[in-house]
Automatic annotation (TrEMBL):
InterPro entries: SSUH2_homolog. This is Protein SSUH2. It comes from the Eukaryota.
Length: 239
């Protein structure tokens, strides 16, 4: 088998090695063999690279004590028919040799070693919701609202034109935080979006108590079914 070792070409440094990732903002991990770093070495599990290792079933003994005669060799005054009078039963896994084909090197005796390059693409997501609703944050994040603003670049700038000044402040805080929050990672791309989620308020009367129900306008039918009438009553705000 061909071994791409240092003799073929001097191994290059990790810095500058190009890794192509086609889909942005998706978590994934890529493993690549680093070029010109391979070499062959005897298997560390085999006995000096003999391609065999100790049997796990009999612990290298080649057999086990006969359970029919408890290792005596005789049963009821006669020779044990299970072990033929030896008191031991031959291991079914290694046929009594105590050695089996090494599972690490697959019986080859040698292993090819190389430097493995592991690149992890991690998507760091943070969000801010204006304090205008008492609905759980997770429910609001599951809804796809109307997109008001979107920017994608190597680095994004804070939003400064929103009518709600709290949005401008939160945008600046998130951008500044992500600039220094991951010192051991290389930022490949950033994306900044601003969405508006419609919120409907309905006045209700339940058991002589008046209140209001907060409902999200959800276009997805599957998510709408999850918010049954009983579940909506959990967010009834009594006045």
């Amino acid at each position: 088998q061909y071994v791409d070792g240092p003799t073929e070409r001097p191994s290059s440094r990790t810095v500058g090695y190009q890794i192509h990732h086609t889909e942005m903002f998706q978590d994934c991990q890529i493993k690549l063999k680093f070029p010109h770093t391979a070499y062959v070495k005897e298997c560390g599990r085999c006995v000096w690279g003999t391609a065999e290792s100790g049997c796990d079933s009999c612990y290298g003994r080649g057999g086990t004590t006969c359970i029919s005669c408890s290792g005596v060799g005789r049963r009821n005054g006669q020779q044990c028919t299970s072990c033929f009078g030896t008191g031991r039963r031959r291991c079914w896994n290694c046929s009594g040799t105590g050695q089996v084909k090494c599972g690490t090197c697959d019986g080859r005796g040698n292993l090819r070693h190389f430097r493995l390059l592991i690149v992890t693409w991690k998507n760091h997501v943070e969000s801010y919701i204006t304090p205008t609703s008492k609905l759980p944050k997770q429910l609001i994040l599951e809804v796809t609202g109307k997109e008001l603003f979107k920017e994608q670049n190597l680095r994004v700038y804070p939003i400064n034109h929103a009518t709600d000044i709290s949005v401008n402040g939160a945008s600046k805080h998130l951008v500044e935080k992500h600039a220094t929050a991951f010192p051991q990672e290389f930022i490949r791309q950033q994306r900044h979006t601003l969405q508006a989620v419609p919120l409907v308020k309905a006045k209700v009367c339940l058991e002589k108590k008046t209140g209001r129900i907060l409902c999200l306008w959800i276009p997805e039918a599957s998510l709408l079914r999850r918010l049954s009438a009983k579940m909506l009553l959990l967010y009834l705000l009594l006045m």
